[in-house]
Design a protein that fits this description.
elongated, 325 residues, mainly alpha, 51% helix, 2 strands, DNA polymerase, domain 1
Length: 325
C-alpha cells in the first residue's frame, strides 16, 4: 500500500498517536502520559517556529536538526542544560510518533532518520547468564528438603518475572491463590506490583515457576503472610520474611556450588531475563514495561549486549565470508 499525504497538521495527529499506543499497542497509562509530556515539548517548539500548519510529509531532516539544537540548548527545571539522556527521551518519543505515521500509511520522515545522542555507558556494564548457565543455577537446589524447595521457588520466580530483590521479598502468600492456579492448570499468573520509583507494572509467572511456588507453599505449616520466609522458629511472633540480603546470600550459595561467575547476583538474573527476551525478538518497549523502567534509555543498555551477540553470530554464520573474491 502506498503512503498517502495527510492534510492534517502534524500537531493534530498527536492525540491520535496517544490513543493508538494506548489501545493498539497496549502501553500502560504511565507510558502514554510520558509520551504525551515528551511530545508536548515538540508541540511547543513547532508553535515557537510558526510551524503549527506543518504536515507530516513536510517534516525534514533539517527541521529535525533544528529541534535537536533546541533540545541541546534547553534548560531543565533547575535551569541546567538538559542531560543527553533526557534529550534522548524526547527523540525516542518523536521516533515513536513517526513510526505511527508509517503504521497508518501516512507519508512522513522515516523514524530511523532521527539519530539518538551517544550516551556514556561507564559504570553501566550489564552482567548476564546464558540460558545454559541459568539452567545450571535453577537445577542447583536440593528439592528433597524444605529449604531447597523454597530456594528453587525463589530462583524460578526471579527468572520468570524479572523482579528486583526488594520486589520479590515484598510478595505475600495471599497474592498466590493456590486453588485458582491449580484450577487453571498452572497456566499463568499476573500480579500488579509497585516497583522502584513508584512505577506500577504487571509481572508474569510462568507455568514452571508457579508449579514450584505451589510445591513450596504446600509444605508451609506457618501463618506468616510473607511468601518467602526463613524456617527458623521465632518465639516473638515477628515475621520471618526473607530480606534482600538473605536472597542475595541464597543466590551466592548456588553460584558458588555450580561454579558460575562469582559476580552473579539476583540482579544478574534480572538482566538475564531481559537479555533472553531481547534475544527472542521481544520489542524493547515491551521489555521496558516488563522491567518497570521509567525511561526507555535505561532499557536500551541491553541492546549493547545483544548487538554484540548478533555481530558475533553474523561473523560466524554469514555466507559472504565463504564466497570467492
Amino acid at each position: 500500500m502506498s503512503m498517502q499525504k495527510s492534510n492534517k497538521p502534524i500537531i493534530k495527529h498527536i492525540t491520535g498517536f496517544l490513543e493508538y499506543i494506548e489501545v493498539e499497542k497496549g502501553l500502560s497509562p504511565l507510558t502514554v502520559k510520558n509520551y504525551d509530556e515528551f511530545l508536548n515539548r515538540f508541540r511547543k517548539w513547532l508553535i515557537s517556529q510558526n510551524l503549527t500548519e506543518l504536515k507530516p510529509h513536510q517534516l525534514s531532516p533539517e527541521l529535525i536538526w533544528k529541534y535537536r539544537l533546541y533540545l541541546s540548548r534547553s534548560l531543565d527545571k533547575m535551569q541546567k542544560s538538559l542531560k543527553k539522556s533526557t534529550q534522548a527521551y524526547y527523540l525516542i518519543a518523536l521516533r515513536g510518533f513517526l513510526n505511527y505515521f508509517t503504521e497508518k500509511d501516512i507519508l512522513s520522515l522515516p523514524a530511523d532518520k532521527i539519530k539518538l545522542p551517544k550516551l556514556s555507558l561507564r559504570g553501566r556494564k550489564i552482567n548476564f547468564l546464558t540460558l545454559e548457565q541459568i539452567e545450571k543455577l535453577l537445577l542447583a537446589p536440593d528439592i528433597s528438603n524444605k529449604i531447597g524447595l523454597r530456594d528453587k521457588a525463589i530462583l524460578e520466580t526471579l527468572f520468570s518475572t524479572g523482579l528486583r530483590v526488594s520486589e520479590l521479598t515484598a510478595l505475600n502468600r495471599d497474592q498466590i491463590n493456590m486453588e485458582n492456579i491449580k484450577k487453571n492448570k498452572f497456566k499463568d499468573l499476573e500480579l500488579g506490583i509497585v516497583g522502584k520509583g513508584g512505577v506500577s507494572r504487571v509481572v508474569y509467572f510462568s507455568e514452571r515457576a508457579l508449579s514450584w511456588i505451589i510445591r513450596y507453599l504446600e509444605i508451609r505449616k506457618d501463618e506468616d503472610k510473607a511468601l518467602f520466609i526463613n524456617f527458623r522458629l521465632d518465639k516473638n511472633n515477628i515475621s520471618r520474611r526473607l530480606t534482600s540480603r538473605s536472597i542475595e546470600n541464597i543466590v551466592k550459595k548456588y553460584v558458588k556450588q555450580t561454579g558460575l561467575p562469582i559476580t552473579t547476583t539476583p540482579h544478574t538474573i534480572r538482566h538475564s531475563y531481559a537479555t533472553d527476551l531481547l534475544n527472542q525478538g521481544v520489542d524493547l518497549r515491551a521489555i521496558q514495561e516488563f522491567l518497570g523502567h521509567r525511561n526507555i534509555v535505561t532499557t536500551q543498555l541491553y541492546t549493547h549486549v545483544t548487538n554484540k551477540r548478533l555481530r558475533d553470530i553474523h561473523r560466524k554464520f554469514h555466507g559472504g565470508s565463504k564466497l570467492k573474491e
